[in-house]
Design brief:
Strand content: 25-35%
Oligomer: single chain
Order of helices and strands: EEHHEEHEEEEH
Helix content: 25-40%
Distance between the termini: 25 Å
Mean pLDDT: 91
Low-confidence stretches: none
Strand order of the largest sheet: 2-1-8
Shape: extended
Structural class: alpha+beta
Number of strands: 8
Radius of gyration: 22 Å
């Protein structure tokens, strides 16, 4: 279940969206590498320490690949690549990374799948997702004795 809360847009510079209500996701907790390794241990024959060692190494391998200008694709999950934000230069000769590059970031592209009947693409990991307004759950808990 993916929780959300409703937020009203108060930005007057967006006249079409001003005062309208929008769903925003709510993060209920953050899981870490230990948690993932523990879950792998419960769902397989691998020990937690082995799973954690593999996951730690995977992070290092992905980092090395990104620093080598490679795109990293993990089947069933998605792909990582490096993006660069920069300002334009008047000419190639005028371009300087120190002056024109604003930042470097990692771009994640989730794996998608296409529904053959509708030809609509969706994020593979979100197929079957259900949404729930967390405000209703919070109100119910507050009413309980």
């Amino acid at each position: 279940m993916i929780f959300y809360k409703l937020i009203q847009n108060k930005n007057e510079e967006m006249p079409k969206a001003f005062n309208k209500w929008y769903a925003r996701p709510v993060v209920t907790e953050t899981i870490d590498l230990d948690y993932i390794a523990e879950r792998i241990q419960r769902n397989s024959t691998a020990k937690k320490s082995d799973a954690k060692a593999v996951l730690t190494e995977m992070v290092e391998v992905i980092t090395d690949a990104l620093l080598s200008s490679q795109r990293v694709k993990i089947d069933g999950f998605g792909a990582f690549k490096v993006g660069i934000s920069s300002r334009g230069a008047d000419s190639e000769e005028d371009y300087s990374t120190a002056e024109h590059v604003r930042g470097v970031r990692i771009i994640f592209q989730p794996e998608t799948q296409t529904d053959p009947s509708t030809r609509k693409r969706s994020k593979k990991m979100l197929v079957g997702a259900t949404l729930s307004n967390i405000s209703g759950l919070v109100a119910k808990k507050e009413q309980e004795p």
